Amino acid sequence: MQEYPTGPGRMHEYSSATEAMLDRITHYTKARMRMSPPPLDGPKTYEYLQENASGTINAEGLGDEEALRVFEDVIAPATISQDHPNFLSFIPAAATEAASAFDIVVSVSNICATSWLESAGVVYAENEVLHWLAAEFGLPEGAGGVFVQGGTLGNLSALSTAREHAKRTKQLPKDGRWKIICGSEGHSSLVNAAMVMDVDIVKIDTDDSGRLTGESVRKELQNSKDGIFAIVATAGTTNFGLVDNLDEIADVAGEFGIWFHVDGAYGLAAAIGRKRRADFKGIERVDSLIIDPHKWMFAPFDACALLYRDPEIARRIHAQKAGYLDIMNEGTVEWNPSDYAINLTRRARGLPLWFSLATYGTEAYRNAIDHGITLADDIAEYIRQKDGVQLVREPQLSVVVFERPDWELEDYEAWADKLMDDGFAFVMPTKFKGRAVTRFAIINPTTKIDDLRAIVDSMLEFPKVKA
């Protein structure tokens, strides 16, 4: 084996100061990962942060020890821990120990996962995960895609693919405007995607259960099919965790020859489990989909898996061309991740998930996902049995929306503040048909049913702000 001269950056050439910095950061990292649970923490005022954390960027530098102290004592405690088992608002994140630890490896390895040329091994490993996901969702052999930053970029990349594909295969709309159809519960990122692409978005009312149906999509297409280039269904709405009728919508998309995209950022993980797999019938018929592993697949931020039925369509649209990029496409090119989304330089976002899946196995993932659904079912039953609190809708996945009928928004806010101040839980109000309600978004495998019951009980015991 050929020996190479030692260069700058070799471990044994680190100064004692650098070794000490590595020891301090390693110690903090281990201590943070050993916390069970981690502190919930919470936001601080601007004035507090200005007083305690200003001036950290200066000509001389603080030194790593003082910078780490500021982070540990000031910045981190002013940040809510999304991996706390009682972080139950928005859609939380709860990375496995393996995924969190390997995210450190990804960072220190300084990987640029843009092309096969630069990072063939990394791309292969990421694609192992993408191929497994495609198979789980019933997509054909040859389906593939890329890990991007998050659901917003994933939706934008998929829909821009659909729009450009429509431009090449369909007539220009009579009014010159391309359009997207989605349900009224569709994610806010769809509106942003439409704005960026300068297309129109048509939101269709859902049925009484809150789901988009094939019948409502067909009616809209019959009324205004000109210019509609994509139908977007949601597999797990953010507010209620509901799954649109994918099979019906796939029928309509096929009938009219329109691109079918599914936003499964949060909820599509449930199709990997056993308890709700049947609710996703039709997912195998999509043209594209997204799922965010940093949500219900226990990976660290930030990672969205974007999959295409026919990736070649996306490659023809997204592959960037420039003199300095030509070398990436010379000879045998297995897979350039940059060719399948609105991205070029990218970190290896899929590697922490790959390491976690390789470490624990897919069965552990199925069980952990089903556990979240079991908790949702159990706490929903507890709420049904309680006087003074009621479900707003029956849960489908792991989101449970409930209310105390005599409360206004200010009551929910005061109660939520008390839970946060006590360091016990993060449970924020949301809106349903103009009125304030609250919700549990349950994905963390360490969340306990006793804690969920205690939160519900505290709601019943909390006095109204204005009696």
How would you characterize the overall build of this protein?
With 467 residues, this protein is of the alpha/beta class. Helix content is 42%, strand content 12%. The protein is built from 15 helices and eleven strands. It has a seven-stranded mixed β-sheet with strand order 1-7-6-5-4-2-3, sandwiched between helices. Helix 4 (97-109) crosses helix 12, helix 6 (151-169) packs across helix 11 and helix 8 (214-224) runs parallel beside helix 9. The longest helix is centred in the C-terminal third of the chain and has 23 residues, at 362-384. The protein is globular, with a radius of gyration of 24 Å. Mean pLDDT is 92; it is low at 1-8.
What are the main properties of this structure?
467 residues, alpha/beta, seven-stranded mixed beta sheet, four-stranded antiparallel beta sheet, 15 helices, globular, disordered N terminus
